[in-house]
Amino acid sequence: MSNVTTHDTMHDHSHDHDHAHAMPTGWRRWLFATNHKDIGTMYLIFAMMNLFAGGTMALLIRLELFQPGLQFLRPEFFNQLTTLHGLVMVFGAIMPAFVGFANLMIPLQIGASDMAFARMNNFSFWIMPVAASLLLGSFLAPGGAAAAGWTLYAPLSVQMGPGMDMAIFAIHLMGASSIMGSINIVVTILNMRAPGMSLMKMPMFCWTWLITAYLLIAVMPVLAGAITMVLTDRHFGTSFFAAAGGGDPVMYQHIFWFFGHPEVYIMILPAFGIVSEVIPTFARKKLFGYSSMVYATSSIAILSFIVWAHHMFATGMPVTGQLFFMYATMLIAVPTGVKIFNWIATMWQGSMTFETPMLWAVGFIFVFTVGGFTGLILAMAPIDIGLQDTYYVVAHFHYVLVAGSLFAMFSGFYYWAPKWTGFMVNETRGKIHFWCSMIFFNVTFFPMHFLGLAGMPRRYADYPVQFADFNVIASIGALGFGLSQLYFLLFVALPTYRGGKKAEAQSWEGAEGLEWTVPSPAPFHTFETPPVLTK
Amino acid sequence: MNTTTKRLFTAASVTMVGLSASFSSLAYNDMPGGPAVRQLNFAAPVTKIMEDIHWLHWFMMIICTLIFIAVFGAMFYSIFKHRKSKGNKPADFHESTTVEIIWTIIPLIIVIGMALPATKTVVAMKDTTNADITIKATGYQWKWGYDYIKGEGEGIAFLSTLSTPREQINNLAEKSDTYLMEVDNEVVVPVNKKIRVITTANDVIHSWTVQGFGVKQDAIPGFVRDTWFKAEKIGTYRGQCSELCGKEHAFMPIVVRVVSDEDYSAWVSSKKKEMASMADDPSKTYTLEEAKARGAKVYAANCQVCHQPNGKGGGAFPALDGSMVVNGSKEGQYKILLNGKNAMPKWSALSDTELAAVMTYTRNSWGNHTGEVIQPSDFVTARAAK
C-alpha cells in the first residue's frame, strides 16, 4: 500500500543477541511460545492435522455413500461422522488456519514487532489442541460422538449421549480461544501499526481480519449461550428448547444461526483479504477500488447479522418473516458482486503472470462465484423450500467453504511460504496440486447440485437407487481431492520447509507491502523499531 | 504378500465390485412419483406452486448464466490478453467512483427484479386458508403418523412406516425401484382439492416433504405448523424426511397417493371399516400367548431398530435381555414406556393395548422369563398414577 524507505533489516537481526528475550530453543520454544511467527506456524500445523482428520471422516462418508444400501457404516456412526466432519472442519481447520495466517502476517504487514498480547496468544493457541482432543476423543464415549449435525439442533442434541457434552465443552473452549485471538488481532491492528500507516492505507488482508475479528467477538458468545442452554436442558432440567416446559425448539435455531450466518463470513472474509493481496501482486497493478473493497467488506459483515433465518425457511415462518429474510439475503449479492468486479478490474490491463498463488486466486474467484450464484438461488424462499436440507445445499456451502476459504488459504500459503520458510515453493508441484484439487473438487461437488434438485436429502446414510450414479462420481472425486491434499502435505508443504530455491526478501516481482522488506525467511524478531513509511 | 499390499488389494477389489455394481444402476428405472435415474432438475410439477418454483428456478438460472458469461468473459479475456508474456504493460488506474456506483446500482436492480416474482410465490405458498381437507402429520422417530382432522375422511388415523425390507437395505436382496421411498400406509387424498397439512412431532424435529408438490414443512415437537398443496394429477408422489432426526433419518419416507373423488370416497369408507374392526377393546383380558404374539408385532414395528431383534441393544440403546428394568418392578417399566428416558421416546403413539402387549413380550422373551402378563387395564392405572 505504502512505499517504504529502505530499512536496514540486518539491524533487527543483530539486535537479537543482546536482547533480553533471545530465541528460546527445544520444546520450550513451542510450549511457551510468545512469538507471533511460532504461534502462527503452530496454528497452521494444527489446522492441517484437523484438515486431515476431517477429510478422513469425509472419505468414510463418501465410502458409505458410494453405493445405495448400508455397506460399511451403521447409520448412527454415519451421523457421528457427518457431525464431527462439520465441527472439525469449521472449528478445527478453517478458523484456526486463518488465525494462523493472521498471526504470521498481520504484524509483518503493519510493521509491528509482535501481536499485542503475546502470552494470551500462547494461551489461545494451546486451548485448541485440548479442545480438539476432547472433540475427537468423543468418538470413544459411550454412544459415540455427537450425531445431531454440526448445527446441534435441539431437541435431537438433547437426546444424545456424553459425546454431545464433550462436543459442547470443546466448542466452548474453541470459542474462548477465538475470542482471545480476535481481541488480540483487533488491538494489534488498531494500536500497533507503523507510524504513518493510517487505517485506509492498511493492506486488505488486515482490513478483512479486523472486520472478521469484530464479527467473532460479536457472535461466539451467542453460540456459547446456545450450546450452554442445550447443556442445561440435557442435565439440569431446564426447558429452553422443550415445548413441554414452555421452551421452543425453533428458538435454538434462531440463536444458532444468529451466530451461524456471521460465522460463514468469518470463514470467507479473510479469504477475500488473501485474494486481494495476491491478485495485485501478479497483475503488477494496484488493487482496484481499495476503499470500495473496505466498504463492501463492512457491508457484508453488517448484513450478515440480519439474514440468519434464511437457514430456516422450512421451519414455517410467517410470510413477512420469509420475505424480509429473502430480501436481506439477496442484498448480500450486491457487495459480494462489487468485490468480484474489483478483482477483475485489478486484473484488467495488468501485466499478469500465473505462478501458483495466482492460479489459486483466479480459481478461487471462479469457483467461489459458482457458490455465490447457488447462494442467490437458495436465497429465493420458494426455491429454497425445494432445496432445503438437500445435497444442493451441501454443494453450495462446499463451493464457498472449500473452493472459497480453503482455496484462498492455499493461495496464501504459496504466496507467503517464501517469507515463512526462506524457500520458494516448487512451481511444478504447486501447479499439479492446483489442477488436481480444482478438477477433483468439481468432480466431487458439481454432481451434488443435481442430486439436490432431484431431492436427495443431506445427512442420509442410504439413498434411493436412482441417485446412485452421481454418488459414484462424487465419491471418486472425493478420493481424488483427498489424495491431492496428501500430495500437498508430503510433496509441497513439508519439502518447502526443508529446502528449495532460496527466496529473496522481495519474493515476487510485483509484491508490495512491509512484509517484503524483511529478509526471507523473516527473522525471529522483526520491526523491533517501527519502519518509516513515506507518502 | 505383506499386509499393506494385501490391504491395497482388498481396497481395489472392493472398489471394482462397487464400480461394477454401480453401473448396474443403469438397470434401475425411474421411480414413479419419485426421482428419475440421473435426474438433473426438480421433480415434475404436480401443483401450481411447484410449477412456479420451476419457473423461478429457470428464471434464476438464465440470469445467473448471463452474468456468469459476462463476468468471466471479461476475466478470461483479461487473463489471455493482459499477460506479461504478451508484453502487456500494467495500466495505472486503480479507482473510479463512477464505476463503483454503476456496479453497485446495476446488481441492486437485478436483485430487485429477482425478488419480485419470488414474492408472489411466497405469499401463495403461505396461504393455507379455505382447505377442503385438513390432515395432521406427526413425525415420530422414525415413522409418520397421520390424522384426518377435517373434511371428508375425518377421523381416519394411521401410522405410515417404511415398507422396504431390511434385506434390501443390508444388500441381501435386490433393491426395488421404489427402494426407501415406499410405505405400508400411504396418505390418500383426492385430486384437485386443497389439502392443508398440519405438522407436528412427538420427539425431535422432522420435516414433511413431497418434491413434486413443492412442499417442505418442518414438524416441530410441541408446536404446529401448516402448509398446503392441491395436486392436479392422479398418481403416487413421494418424499423423504428432510430434517436430521436420528439414526433412522433416511428411513422414514412420505408417500401420498392422489386419487379421483370417487376413489377417495371408496377409500374413506373402507379405511373406516378397517379401523372399526381393528379397534382394540381396552377392557379385554389377554392370555400370555395372545399378549406375546401381539407384543412381538409391536416390538418389530417400534422397538427393534434400537433394541435389536435379539433384545441385546447396542451403543446408546440398552439391552432388554436380562435388563434390570424389564425383569424388575412393573412400575419402573411403565414409567419408561410412558415418559421416555434419554434416547427412549415416550410412546404416546401406542395404545394401552399395544403397550401392555409389548411389555408382556419383553418380560417373557429371550432370557427374560417373568411369566407376567400385563393387561391394557394395568396401563390405564399406570397412566392415572403418574
Task: Describe the model.
Chain A is mostly helical and 535 residues long. Chain A has helices at residues 9-15, 26-31, 36-65, 75-110, 118-137, 156-159, 162-191, 204-235, 249-266, 269-283, 290-303, 319-331, 333-347, 356-379, 381-387, 391-421, 427-453, 468-498. The longest helix of chain A is centred in the N-terminal third of the chain and has 36 residues, at 75-110. Chain A is globular and about 65 Å long. Residues 1-20 of chain A have low confidence and may be disordered. Chain B is of the alpha+beta class. Helix content of chain B is 42%, strand content 15%. Chain B has eleven helices and ten strands. Chain B has helices at 3-23, 48-81, 97-126, 166-169, 261-278, 288-302, 304-307, 324-327, 330-339, 352-363, 376-385; strands spanning 133-140, 143-150, 157-160, 187-190, 195-201, 206-210, 215-219, 225-229, 235-240, 253-259. In chain B, the strands form three sheets. Chain B has a five-stranded mixed beta sheet with strand order 3-2-1-5-8, with no helix packed on it. A three-stranded mixed beta sheet of chain B has the order 4-10-9. In chain B, strands 6-7 form a two-stranded antiparallel sheet. In chain B, helix 2 packs antiparallel against helix 3, helix 6 (288-302) packs across helix 10 (352-363) and helix 10 (352-363) crosses helix 11. The longest helix of chain B is centred in the N-terminal third of the chain and has 34 residues, at 48-81. Chain B is elongated and about 95 Å long. The chains are: A mainly alpha (535), B alpha+beta (386). Chains A and B meet through helix 4, helix 11, helix 12, helix 13 and helix 14 of A and helix 1, helix 2, helix 3, strand 7 and strand 8 of B.
